[in-house]
Design a protein that fits this description.
This is Chromosomal replication initiator DnaA. InterPro entries: DnaA_dom (IPR013317), Hda_lid (IPR055199), P-loop_NTPase (IPR027417). Pfam families: Bac_DnaA (PF00308), Hda_lid (PF22688). Helix 3 (about 115-125) links the parallel strand 5 (about 100-105) and strand 6. About 40% of the residues lie in helices and about 10% in strands. It has helices at about 40-45, 65-75, 115-125, 145-155, 165-180, 185-195, 200-215, 220-230, and strands spanning about 10, 55-60, 80-85, 95-100, 100-105, 130-135, 155-160. It is of the alpha/beta class. It is built from eight helices and seven strands; from the N terminus they run E-H-E-H-E-E-E-H-E-H-E-H-H-H-H. The termini are far apart.
C-alpha cells in the first residue's frame, strides 16, 4: 500500500490504497478471518450484493476484527482503503477523489469532516459502495457538520461483538502465529484463562509480550507475562 496526496486521484486498486500505521503486515483476507457468532451478523451484511444507498457502517470494540473485515471486503470488491484520521483539507483547495468502491477505517474520528462528506457524495453520485468502520455507531459518534451527521445516521449499521471463548482461544493462537512467536501450550492456556475476555486485551498482551521478548532475547514465559501485563492479568486462584 502507498500513501496518496490529499488532492490526488485514485482508482479502486491496491496500489492506490493508503497505508495504515501497522507494526507488521499480516494478510487480512477472508480466509484468515476467524468466524464466530460474535461476528456472524457483520459477515452476513458484508456478503450482501447491495446496501441501502450503497453505504454500510461496521462498528464494535477494538480487537473484534473490524479492520480485518474492512480490508478483506476492500480486496474482494476492488475498493480503495482510507484511514479517516488522516483526512485533511488542502490549503490549495484540493481534496481526495476516488473512483470505485471505498472502504474508510476509523470513520467515527475523521481528521476533516468536509473531506469525508465529499467522498460520500462522490460515491453516491458514481453509484459506488462505501464501507465504513468505527468503534461507535453513527448515532453515538459526534460530527460537527449537520449534513455529514444526518447522512451517517441514515446509514445501515452492523456490529462485531466481543469474542466468545472458543474464538478467543483461536484468536490468541492466531495472534502469536502472525508474529511467529513460539509459546508453550501451558503458557498460552494460562494467558487465555487470566486475560480479560476482550479481543483488545489479547491484541495488547501479544504486542507487549512480543516487544519484551524481542528486546530481551528471551522466550515468552509466565514470569515474563506477569511482569509485562500486571494491569491485564486477573489474580491467580
Amino acid at each position: 500500500m502507498t500513501k496518496r496526496d490529499a488532492g490526488g486521484a485514485a482508482g479502486g486498486h491496491a496500489s492506490a490504497q493508503m497505508a495504515f500505521p501497522l507494526r507488521r503486515v499480516t494478510a487480512m483476507t477472508s480466509e484468515r478471518f476467524i468466524n464466530g457468532p460474535s461476528n456472524a451478523a457483520a459477515r452476513a451484511w458484508l456478503a450482501r450484493s447491495q446496501w441501502p444507498d450503497g453505504r454500510l457502517w461496521l462498528w464494535g470494540p477494538s480487537g473484534t476484527g473490524k479492520t480485518h473485515l474492512l480490508t478483506a471486503w476492500a480486496h474482494e470488491h476492488d475498493a480503495t482503503v482510507l484511514d479517516a484520521r488522516l483526512f485533511s483539507r488542502s490549503s490549495a483547495g484540493g481534496r481526495i477523489r476516488v473512483q470505485g468502491n471505498l472502504a474508510i477505517d476509523n470513520a467515527d474520528s475523521p481528521g476533516d469532516e468536509a473531506t469525508m462528506l465529499h467522498l460520500l457524495n462522490d460515491a453516491f453520485a458514481q453509484g459506488d459502495r462505501v464501507l465504513m468502520a468505527g468503534q461507535l455507531p453513527p448515532s453515538r459518534s459526534h460530527f460537527m457538520l449537520p449534513d455529514l451527521a444526518s447522512r451517517l445516521r441514515a446509514t445501515a449499521t452492523t456490529a462485531t461483538g466481543e469474542p466468545e471463548d472458543d474464538l478467543r482461544a483461536t484468536l490468541l493462537l492466531s495472534l502469536l502465529a502472525d508474529r511467529q512467536l513460539v509459546v508453550s501450550q501451558s503458557v498460552t492456556e494460562w494467558l487465555w484463562r487470566h486475560l480479560p475476555r476482550t479481543g483488545n486485551a489479547l491484541v495488547s498482551a501479544v504486542e507487549r509480550l512480543d516487544e519484551a521478548a524481542l528486546a530481551r532475547k528471551q522466550p515468552i514465559t509466565r514470569a515474563l507475562a506477569m511482569e509485562m501485563l500486571p494491569d491485564l492479568l486477573t489474580p491467580e486462584g
